[in-house]
Amino acid sequence: MELQYSELDNQIKLLKLIGSLDILGVGAIETKFAAYCSGENARVIVDLSQVHFLASIGIRLLTINAKSLTTRGGRMALLSPTPEVRKTLDVTGIVDVIPVYDGIESAETMLLAI
């Protein structure tokens, strides 16, 4: 699993994940991912367009950090999951906790509106 970080002009953090969010993948990025989600009022977009497998431990990583962001006044959005990953997100109900968008502009708009 690879984690790429960038910051958009509007101070939204963009985390791009590449690979599998399974036990090995999560282990490889968990500490960095949590660090990027730290801070007050942080806005984070997680790009899932290159994640080809999402295991329960990956769902745990996303939900724990999304909830942590919320308690500090921040928000998380998921971006462009592959069809396989989207199916997993839908089945597990994570979409009720973390909004999912197909376009980065929509995700940015939601994060900045709150």
Strand order of the largest sheet: 1-2-3-4-5
Sheet with the most strands?
5 strands, mixed
Would you identify the regions where 5 or more consecutive residues have pLDDT less than 50?
Answer: none
**Structural class label:** alpha/beta
- Rg measurement, Å: 13 Å
Q: Please report which band the strand proportion falls in: under 5%, 5-15%, 15-25%, 25-35%, 35-45% or over 45%.
A: 25-35%
| Number of helices, where a helix is a run of at least 4 consecutive DSSP H or I residues | 4
| Straight-line distance between termini | 31 Å
Would you tell me the overall average pLDDT?
96
Structure summary, number of beta strands: 5
The shape, in one word, is globular
Order of helices and strands: EEHEHEHEH
The portion of residues assigned to helices is 40-55%
Q: If you had to describe this structure to a student in words, what would you say it looks like?
A:
Helix 1 (23-36) runs parallel beside helix 2. The longest helix is centred in the middle third of the chain and has 16 residues, at 56-71. Helix content is 44%, strand content 30%. It has four helices and five strands, in the order E-E-H-E-H-E-H-E-H. The mean pLDDT is 96. By secondary structure, it is of the alpha/beta class.
How would you summarize this macromolecular structure in one to three sentences?
The protein has 114 residues and is an alpha/beta fold. Helices cover 44% and strands 30% of the residues. The model has no long low-confidence stretch (mean pLDDT 96).
